[in-house]
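Interim report to the steering committee. The following record documents the input for DUF255 domain-containing protein (174 residues).
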Amino acid sequence: MKLLATALTAILFLAGCDKAANASGYAANSKLKELTNLQELAAEARERNLPIMLTVGAEWCEFCHILREEVLDPMALGGDYDGKVVFMRYLSIDEHQPIPDMNGQPIRKDELARRYKADLTPTVIFIDGQGQKVAANIVGIANIELYTTLIHKHLNQAYEKMGNPLRLDAMPGQ
């Protein structure tokens, strides 16, 4: 009986390790950078007059994985977006280590997401270098094939609100 209990404990432990490895492995393989310091990112956004696009997600969220794999990673990998037309970061609400907020104060990522009304995952938030929302949130995935077009539409709204003359074509690659 003791041998059975030990074997069962080992199996459960290994299953938990495998799940943790898969979760952390996915984020490590993603091309989209994780948000680690909003204060520094905001300063750079102010300097370049570019919006910040925060994608709020979680490891357990299947739709978050789809969005990262099919839309956000290709956008980040191409090098045409991050730091050029927008600052793109992923905001994992699974991580509970505080990061510096807009004012340098420590904040947990799930609290930061709630501050911007991101109650569901995935949610894409658009803010300026002052931390003000400059376009409506995109909540969920209605049509993955048109998601980049939707992001472009929201970025154009952000540029207009920020007084930035930059505009993106509705369809990427045009």
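The first strand starts at residue 52 and ends at 57. The committee is asked to note this result when reviewing the revised timeline.
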